[in-house]
Amino acid sequence: MSRKMALRRLCAVAGVSLGVFTITTAAAHAEQPLSDAPAQVYEARNRDTLQTHLRTSESAANASTPNAPSYSLYTTSILQDLHDGLETMQSSYFSIWLGKYTTAIDWTAAVMATHVSATLASLSRSLTYTMPGTFDKSKNLDVEAQMVENEINKYFGQIATYYFGEDHFAIRMQAYDDILWVVLGWLESIQFIEGHSAEHYASGSQKEAAVPEWHARQFIPAFAHRARIFYEIAEKGWDWRLCGGGMTWNPRLLPYKNAITNELFISASIGMYLHFPGDANCAPFLSQYDDIKDKKNRKPSDKLLRAQERGEQCDENTQTESSYDPVYLANAINGYDWLKNSGMKNKQGLYVDGFHIAGYRTNHSKTECDERNEMVYTYNQGVILSGLRGLWEASGKQTYLEDGHELIRNVIRATGWTDGQIFAAASTHPEKPDQIPESHRDILTSWAGLGAGGILAEACDPSGSCNQNGQTFKGIFFHHLTTFCKPLPAVPVRLGRTYAASRETRILHARSCKEYTKWVVHNAKAALRTTNKEGRFGSWWGANGHAGQILRVRRVANAMDYQNRPDEYSARFEEEAHTSDDAGGAEDEDERLAGHDMTGDHDERDDTASRDWNDRGRGRTVETQGSGVAVLRAMLEFERLGQSDDGGFVP
Ligand SMILES: *[C@@H]1O[C@H](CO)[C@@H](O)[C@H](O)[C@H]1NC(C)=O
Ligand SMILES: *[C@@H]1O[C@H](CO)[C@@H](O)[C@H](O)[C@H]1NC(C)=O
């Protein structure tokens, strides 16, 4: 992308008025005296930097496109909110000396780091400078570029720290979905590094001009190694015997073939195909069971630890495949074929949680997935989207994009969103979605399956009973939605391996995605309204519209909330526990229990006058913050679609 295009993209958000964007964390922060704490001074100063820099860009844009309307303050204000959300997340919840999100559990930490990488990629694309620059102190742009670059480096430093703080030995012993979040996280980070390098540092012919490469590139082999190791562990979760294929959730529990593990496998497989740069590091690793002497405590053996510490590099002959390995592509295609035909969608066109095999506990010869858990979560509608986008790019088959758009529309409809013709009826989906029967609408009379009033919500949100799992899901949905709606390439990224879109396809995809923008913005603004004085996001974005109402979403028949209700989880899975000493609950059992302590019932007795609905239950956490960051980033990227010409779409 040319510098000029970047400027224009940043500065010409068409058709959006400034006035409606009222409640922001920036406003909350601004009221605090700057002298209070050094951290706040730094944060505030930094916000100024971003703003000044963007203003500079604006005047440049005015010069190059004199007649373009300038709405850049709107974009600037989204960028500020996004940056504030990120800064709050990292300063409140990330501990550098440990390299950890101290209150997260392993899988949610992996997702948080993913949000950081993705957000940095968005910030990087918003800014226009080349490093190292001439650094002329009299030139504003140079000074500002250095400051913004410094900010990006600060957060990248935290990602690098997290690489070492991530408890990767523990995660190897966890369920396959836990393992796959790690793969997605490091692939995201690699993409950010590649993107930031390409936009702001030497590339190609420029290399001769003695411009150095960005220092973060030195981490790519390490990140790639971890992605590969975790992918190869997870790959073992695929099984053809039960349910005719698909990934198993957790090898230590009764068989459960669920949406999330399969969606993750599809997205991770296609991510490895498209973005894995190869791995020259053959330091040994062992799978979940291999060579674990102390199975009960699930500790890696000394041999494994020593091997890992040596970190041996292999010679060139034993290097693993580089990118575009057809095995990854085949895994993604198989995975989606199975998922699509598994019957895992309900009448609203949403993925339910998964399948059990009835009677398996007493008869291990049974293989048919015939017991469906009707529970619907937001993240089960999300992760597959980036997989579908990647499958299109690797195969050129348009059905993958069509499936993605259909799912997105089903989700938007299931939030009760009625604005816009396309959501009135699904033309691609002749079967009418079920109306929510009267008897099922107890609290939120408008509860539509995945939210109310056009705002995405988890079923546990209104009662404040989400645990760490549930608090993470909406952010995951928006992260993958954003990936799905990236403009399609007009030329193949890699000739012979990936596909480009025809002009017609690019226009169609871009036009469809632009139709979602209003809904995305509606959700992001709702999320912003839940921030408290410290700028921390709440979990239930729809809270403000429902003050005074209580607040429990009626459960659909046969819907078991394993993710937020430890009682249901253990009832279903732990019968097996005493027949095998290797079985056990999830890695975060304690957290699940803790998260369930407070329910909506408890709060009904509270004084409602000064209540913040989002202080109930687990309250504000790193997970709710990460979700807030993800929906703000979605707003930024969707607003950009309106000015992007990558889609070849000129209104
Ligand atoms: C750019 O142009 C817009 C609209 O003409 C104007 O409102 C704005 O102040 C200009 N910005 C700068 C920095 O000159
Ligand atoms: C176990 O399941 C298999 C496959 O459904 C069936 O053929 C067999 O009769 C079952 N055995 C018992 C003891 O129910």
UniProtKB/TrEMBL annotation:
GO MF, one example: hydrolase activity
Region ranges (Disordered): 297-320, 574-629
InterPro entries: 6-hairpin_glycosidase_sf, Glyco_hydro_76, MUG_Protein
GO biological process: carbohydrate metabolic process
Pfam families: Glyco_hydro_76
UniProt keywords, alphabetically: Hydrolase
Residue ranges that the Swiss-Prot or TrEMBL entry lists as coiled coil: none
Compositional bias per record (Basic and acidic residues), positions renumbered to this chain: 297-313, 592-621
Protein name: Glycoside hydrolase family 76 protein
Organism: Didymella exigua CBS 183.55
